[in-house]
């Protein structure tokens, strides 16, 4: 409970707080009445009298707040040994807990060959909380975090495009958000991204460092401080890499995601999504189509914003089109919107639905106003806005499997805007781009497997 | 302080990865307190997290029993908790002597 007080002080507000036993959500009305009649557990004083005192007892001198002022920091950290700097970065909360590539001036200068933009160009501000002070960042600051993530100059345009959206990888919430990064367009192959087998697993250099760079930018450019600005009760392991991958446009039977969002097919684009979790299909669809299976899985989510994102292997997409007639992504999302139905009590019983959708019902916005009056067991179709269900095709066709996520699409940004006129040259004695093994994934006959 | 060439050579200068603060957050003082709640209007405001409204309903009941002359106004904030609602705040500022915000959850 004290984090609420600390949060208020971060905003230079010295409010008078009283606390009930935690939590209120899910408690019966009788229990809540007992709380109101009882004591504040942090003070052992009757809460009602405490509330009266809060608005009647005079303000004390100790309750005067000073302005909260954070000082600007120098561009360079005080010089030190590698070992001491790794310790400094870790202990300062500037990392994700893993060793980083220290951002020396030489490394950052090399990273900046990945764009023609001025290092001092102000890109914007970021914060992980909605109403906290934002931190200002430049192209150079993004490059610093890209170096730390282990990225190379060829990755910088994607990382800059991510940063340009000014969205944190883990917005602060006790619910612990998790996000996804999806890349489309020619850049996927230019920098060797994986959108086939194992795309979401740690087998690809570009996927790994781009996802990690967003995490580090969020920590350092978004003023992430555990227990001060980040309050996720459990945290979310998606925060390490943000499901960073690319769409398998070549194997998809549908139009690429970025084309759906109005970009040209030959444009390189990064898109981001936001939610919490995903459900693996846990096997291929057998006695029912993948759309019917997905309809079952979607009932597990609270359907906030009528949103979901399906990340499906090309085999799933092909089966849905060829066997079940879903010629477009839109036709599938329309079917899901019409056919996923849950009881009204399940819908309104979710705390986030109560917090975000019930105000709409109170204001008379349909269909929520009508839904709020339904008998508890009457069915409603919570994914009422099919345009909020996104579909991306990712995977290597080892089996028709997919992920059903509660994430909603938030934004896309052009990567091309950040690419340099002349592609950066790989450095080092090898002078070849860094690539991880791609495994024995033969599609051209050279593996001699019939 | 490094005492040898080899120790000096091992010192690295690196860039600070953090964004820069954009300015001071100005402190807001607490409003002066009321001498008592006798005859005053207290708004009890629920911002929309679970359990908050029902808790405030009970608080309203106990408050009016304890101080019969107090006038209480129990309201749910319009919109969700992340939306600014200037008209609502104007109503509160114009009509309430004191406000108790309820943050459930």
Walkthrough of the structure:
The complex is a heterodimer of chains A (450) and B (105). In chain A, 31% of the residues lie in helices and 14% in strands. Chain A is of the alpha+beta class and 450 residues long. Chain A has a four-stranded mixed β-sheet. In chain A, strand 4 and strand 5 (135-138) form a beta hairpin. In chain A, helix 5 crosses helix 6. The longest helix of chain A is centred in the middle third of the chain and has 17 residues, at 205-221. Chain B has a domain at 36-105: Rossmann fold. Chain B is built from three helices and five strands, in the order H-E-E-E-H-E-H-E. Chain B has helices at residues 5-9, 52-66, 86-95; strands at residues 12-15, 20-21, 41-46, 71-76, 98-102. In chain B, strands 4-3-5 form a three-stranded parallel β-sheet, covered by helices on one side. In chain B, helix 2 (52-66) links the parallel strand 3 (41-46) and strand 4. The radius of gyration of chain B is 25 Å and the shape is elongated. Strand 3 (76-80) of chain A pairs antiparallel with strand 1 (12-15) of chain B.
Distance between the termini of chain A: 64 Å
Tally of strands of chain A: 15
Task: Characterize the largest beta sheet of chain A: strand count, sense, and whether it forms a barrel.
Answer: 4 strands, mixed
The outline of chain A comes out as: flat
- Per CATH, the class of one domain in chain B reads Alpha Beta
Largest interface: A-B, 83 and 54 residues
Q: What's the story with the biggest beta sheet of chain B?
A: 3 strands, parallel
The number of helical elements of chain B comes to 3
Which percent range describes the beta-strand content of chain A? Answer: 5-15%
The general outline of chain B is elongated
In round numbers, the mean pLDDT of chain B is 89
The CATH topology of one domain in chain B is given as Rossmann fold
The percent range for strand residues of chain B is 15-25%
Kindly report the oligomeric state of this protein: heterodimer
Given as residue ranges, the uncertain stretches of chain B (5+ residues, pLDDT < 50) are 1-6
Counting H and I runs of at least 4 residues, what is the number of helices of chain A?
17
Note the run of SSEs of chain B as H and E: HEEEHEHE
Q: Tell me the number of strands of chain B.
A: 5
Percent helix range of chain B = 25-40%
